[in-house]
């Protein structure tokens, strides 16, 4: 993992990586081939800096763009046309992945969540200040799917067409994404 430098003051040296493999669940395809990855404390965010901007710059430098700032929807949804990364720059939340029976993850300031195309996710609970930067691998266009049975076959086709990201959104050429997604 890269060490912290003046060029990238926010990136941590070695995050704890939590890996969740998700099988299809009801009308959520998830992505049995690519696991959801949670990088704990991937960013060391300064209290007096622009945390969101630091995360955005790191993601963009590594080819993850089309970004936005907001929270996470409180209903299960997924994207069939793009891999998504979320970087938490304020507050904390619970994020459930995989559908109604899926694991619930604690997600806090400095954490990064990588969601492969098809991975259902929602935030059932969050602090009032919870905020994330979201972005997509290679700036791909994304759709919003809510797990309707009639859209499943089409979504599965799209998921199979989404290429692997060229770079890890935080660590670039190397990093946990390269170790766990192939």
Explain this structure.
- The protein is of the alpha+beta class and 182 residues long.
- Helices cover 14% and strands 29% of the residues.
- The strands form 2 sheets. Strands 1-2-7-4-9-3 form a 6-stranded antiparallel beta sheet. The protein has a 3-stranded antiparallel beta sheet with strand order 6-5-8, with no helix packed on it.
- The protein starts with 15 loop residues before the first strand and ends with a helix.
- Mean pLDDT is 92; it is low at 1-9.
Topology:
Blueprint: E1 16-20, E2 36-40, H1 51-61, E3 64-70, E4 84-90, E5 92-97, E6 104-108, E7 112-115, E8 121-126, E9 131-137, H2 152-161, H3 176-180
Antiparallel strand pairs: 1-2, 2-7, 3-9, 4-7, 4-9, 5-6, 5-8
Multimeric state: single chain
Low-pLDDT segments, ≥5 res: 1-9
Q: CATH topology, anyone? A: Jelly Rolls
- Arithmetic mean pLDDT: 92
- Measured between the Cα atoms of the first and last residue, the distance is 19 Å
Form type: globular
How many helices? The count is 3
Q: What's the order of the H and E elements? A: EEHEEEEEEEHH
State the major sheet.
6 strands, antiparallel
Q: What is the CATH C level class, in words? A: Mainly Beta
User: Which structural class do the helices and strands define?
Assistant: alpha+beta
Walk across the major sheet and give the strand order. 1-2-7-4-9-3
Q: Indicate the CATH architecture.
A: Sandwich
How many strand segments? 9
Residues in helices, as a percent range = 10-25%
> What's the number of domains?
1
Radius of gyration, in Å, reads 15 Å
Strand content: 25-35%
CATH superfamily: Jelly Rolls
């Amino acid at each position: 993992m890269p060490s912290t430098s003046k060029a990238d003051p926010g990136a941590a040296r070695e995050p704890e990586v939590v890996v969740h493999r998700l099988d299809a669940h009801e009308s959520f395809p998830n992505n049995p081939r690519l696991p959801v990855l949670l990088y704990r404390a991937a960013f060391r965010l300064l209290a007096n800096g622009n945390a969101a901007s630091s995360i955005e710059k790191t993601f963009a430098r590594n080819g993850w763009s089309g970004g936005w700032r907001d929270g996470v929807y409180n209903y299960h949804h997924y994207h069939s046309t793009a891999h998504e990364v979320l970087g938490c720059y304020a507050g904390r939340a619970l994020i459930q992945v995989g559908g109604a029976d899926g694991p619930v993850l604690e997600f806090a300031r400095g954490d990064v969540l990588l969601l492969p195309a098809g991975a259902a996710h929602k935030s059932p609970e969050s602090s009032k200040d919870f905020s994330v930067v979201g972005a997509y691998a290679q700036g791909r266009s994304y759709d919003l799917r809510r797990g309707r049975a009639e859209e499943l076959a089409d979504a599965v086709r799209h998921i199979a067409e989404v290429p692997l990201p060229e770079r890890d959104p935080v660590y670039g050429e190397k990093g946990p994404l390269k170790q766990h997604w192939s």
